[in-house]
Amino acid sequence: MKVLSLIVPSYNSERFLDKGIPSFLHPEVIDKLDVIIVNDGSGDATPEVAKKYCDSYPGSIRLINQENKGHGGALNTGCAAAVGKYLKVIDADDWVETENLPEFIRLLESCESDVVLTHHHTIDISTGEVKKWKSYPAEFGRGYTLEEVMGQWKNFDRSLTFHGITYKTEFYHRCGIQLSEHVFYEDHEFATFPCCMAEQVTPFDLFIYEYRIGDVQQSVSDENQLKRIGHTETVLRRLVAEYHKLTLVPSDAGRDYVCMKAQGLLMSYLTTVLLVNPDKKQGREMAQQMMAFFRAELPGAYEKAKKQYAIFRMLNCLHVSRKTFEAVLHSKAYNRLRKNHDFE
Questions:
Q1: How wide is the angle at C-alpha 144 spanned by C-alphas 139 and 145, nearest 5°?
Q2: Which of 19, 99, 230, 305 is deepest in the core (most CB within 10 A)?
Q3: How many helices (H) and strands (E) does the chain have?
C-alpha cells in the first residue's frame, strides 16, 4: 500500500527536478511513495527529466502531462490522481529532508487524522540563510480538534501553511476541492480548504519540507507580488466567497480558521499595495477598496486587520518602504504604537 503521495507541479522545471526528486529516493521507503510529477505544459525538457526517474522507479514515480493550467491546475490534477493514504505537495524547485522520510512514513501509517502538520525550513539562495518554521503544540503526535487549534493559534500557525500541511487523501477527495487555475498564490486556498473542515489535526515533530526562497523570479518576490496583485485579489475574493458557503463545516472553528487565513493574506496584500507600490496614492486607493470589501463581507478579518492597516497607511503617507518598515518591525517603538493606539 502506498502511504504518501508526493505531488510535484512542474512548469519549465528542468533545472530543478534533479535536486528535488532525488530527495525522495530513500531506499527504506521509496516503495511506499507515490510520486506524481505533473508536467503543466512545459516548453523545456521537464518531461524528459521526469521520465528518467519514472523509468528508474516505475512502481513509485509517474508522470502526468497536461496543457498548461497554472499551479492550481497542476495541483488539482496531481491530488485527484493520488493513491497514497496521505498526500503532500512539493513544488518542483523545492525538496524534502530525505533522512526524515522513514520516520514520517512510519507515523503516517498509524495516523488517521484529516490533517498532519510538520515543520519546514526556508533556504535563502541569495544569502544562504536557513530559517526554521516550527509548530509548538503542547504535545506532538496526538490529535487536536480544530477548536483546540484555534484556541492555541500561535502554537500551530507556522505549520498551517502550504509547506507544513499534509492531507489525508480520502478526506481531501471527499471534500471535492478545486483550486483556482491560472492564478498565483492559490496555495493559500490549499492551506485553507479543506483544512477548515478537518475534525482532527496531528502535529509531528519533524522537518520535512525544504522551501527555496531568495530568487527574484519567484512569485513571492516584492516585484512579482506587485505585478501580480490582481492574482492576490482573486484569491482573497475566492476565500471570502467560499467562507460564505461553509454550511457543512463541523463547527464555528472552521469558519474562524478561514477568517484567520484570509486575514493573513489580506495583510500581505496591504503590505504590497501600501509599502511596495511606488504609486503611493494608487496604493492607498486599492487598500481602501479592499478593506471596504472585507468590512462588508468578512468583518471578522477586517477587525483583525484594521489596526495594522492604519499603521501601513500612515507609513505609506510618509513614503516609508517595505525594507525600512521591516527594519523596525520588531522594534519597541512599533510595538508601543500598536499597543497604545486604537487605530480605526
A1: 160
A2: 305
A3: 15, 9
Mean pLDDT of all residues in 129-152: 96
Cα–Cα distance for residue pair 21/9, rounded to 1 Å: 12
Signed CA dihedral, 79, 84, 86, 90: sign only: negative
Q: Say how far apart CA 283 and CA 187 lie, in whole Å.
A: 24
Residue 110: other Cβ atoms inside 10 A:
7
User: The C-alpha cell of 137 is what?
Assistant: 503544540
pLDDT in tens, 305-329: 999 999 999 999 998 877 776 665 5
In angstroms, what CA-CA distances link 160 with 4, 16, 77, 96, 254?
19, 25, 22, 17, 13
* pLDDT at residue 217, rounded to an integer: 59
pLDDT value for 317: 92
Q: Is the pLDDT of residue 342 over 50?
A: no
CA distance 99 to 117: 18
The type of residue at 253 is A
Cell numbers for 131, please give them: 530559517
Distance of CA 273 to the CA centre of its chain: 21
Strands 4-10, 86-89: pairing is parallel
The span from the first CA to the last CA of the chain, in angstroms, equals: 55
Distance, in Å, from the CA atom of 343 to the CA atom of 186, rounded to the nearest integer, reads 31
Residue 194 backbone phi and psi in degrees, to 5: -100, 20
pLDDT reported for residue 252: 85
pLDDT at residue 249 greater than cutoff 90: no
Dihedral (Cα; 229, 233, 236, 238), 10-degree rounding: -130
d(CA 134, CA 316): 32
Predicted confidence at residue 154, as pLDDT, reads 96
Q: Reduced to 3 states, what is the DSSP secondary structure of residue 306?
A: helix
Which of 200, 194, 172, 199 has its CA nearest to residue 245?
194
Tell me the three state secondary structure of residue 252: helix
pLDDT value for 223: 80
